[in-house]
Design a protein that fits this description.
The chain is built from eleven helices and nine strands. It has 311 residues and is α+β, with helices and mostly antiparallel strands. Helix 2 runs antiparallel to helix 3.
Length: 311
Amino acid sequence: MHQTRLKSNVTTALRAPSIRALLEQGAFQLSLFDQRDLAEVTSAEFPGERLVVCRNPLLAAERSRKRQELLAATERDLGKVARAVSRQRRPLRGADQIGLAAGAVLDRHKVAKHFTLSITDDAFGFHRNTEAIEAESRLDGFYVIRTNLGESTLAATDVVRAYKGLCQAERAFRSIKTVDLEIRPIHHRLPDRVRAHVLLCMLAYYLEWHIRQALAPILFDDHQRAAAAAARPSIVAPSQRSAAAQRKAASKRTEDGLPVHSFHSLLAEMATFTRNTMALASTPNDVFLLYPEPTAIQVRSFELLGVPARL
């Protein structure tokens, strides 16, 4: 469950059993979402809290497709168990052994609740539990966000936006822990030093975030997110990259014809631009600075960062 704190208040997403319970209690009807994708409801199970029910049709279609694939794969593998039981030569025997073979199939595909099995010492049968499948499919694409923030503080659409924004926090923690800064392992033992280490990593990520924002036009990052958000038909709808970002990704070129970089490849490119302190053997005390000729991408990077190439 994702969680974020806003002014000491909590916004979380409900798990599937809780959503199913709300539907069974009549907190909302599926017909509400025939012409809309968001509705705010209340429930006695969550006193003093607001519940924002959302339905994403694209997510619903994807979950249905994935379920059908898992059901078909499970049937295929259970069919192998059934053939092993019914074969003439060295058939699989014993309810315990048959159960182990069938259980391995169900554990692999994670849809045990959607099948009914019949196992004896010398027979094995299975069929889909259509009632369970239909019950689960009714909630395809639904998710519910709960919050104790009042509507005057956060409108329903902003509740959804705040919850979806958690992916940025998760990406930041992932970047700090493993991808970019690698906060672990911490080779400190004293509490003050551990806190200082973590603080420096947080400051480094803060700096990296701002650098990424500035360099977005020459990175594969979407540099026109505001335009993409404005074109989004609903906050519940999946986010889309802007048209400019899609062109950049397809052509691998920026709008001014430069090659598009990842953040790491651009850093490697920038690392070749060095400031060298030089001195002649004849006048060792007379030092001067020598810079290489910057490439086009280096020039553009310094422009976007707003700093001079030569200091």
